[in-house]
Amino acid sequence: MAVKRDLDERLLVYGATIIKLVESLPSTIAGRRIGDQLLRSGTSVGTNFEEAQGAESKNDFAHKLQIALKELRESNYWLRLLAKTEMLPQETLVVVIGESAQLKAILSKSVATVKGTAKTKGIEK
Predict the structure, then answer these.
(1) Using CA atoms, how far apart are residues 55 and 26, in angstroms rounded to an integer?
(2) What CATH number is given to the structural domain containing 48?
(3) What InterPro entries does the record tag this protein with (predicted)?
(4) What does the pLDDT read at residue 65?
(5) Would you say 25 and 34 are in contact if contact means Cβ atoms under 8 Å apart?
């Protein structure tokens, strides 16, 4: 259970970091568009993970984790795009991009584990 709590906290911190990053973006057309997309995808990772905790079945749990992973991948893209366009200092982005990559690996492994468990128990579609 400590691992889940640690992941809960990491996702909460990740979402808060995304909010702060978006707030620091320039108020240009590109800054606003990227900011909107990043804010939506980056903050929904944690909410989808939380929703997974109340899943009605293993399949539902896996599906909700997959949605969280999809949103994390999208936010990782926007972060890398910000790095490429140099809208924010690289040192600001390198840490959050690294955390995003780590979280992506954790959620990918979790989805694979849950799907593997579902397959071995014959409960996957």
Answers:
(1) 39
(2) 1.20.1440.60
(3) 23S_rRNA-intervening_sequence, 23S_rRNA_IVS_sf
(4) 96
(5) yes
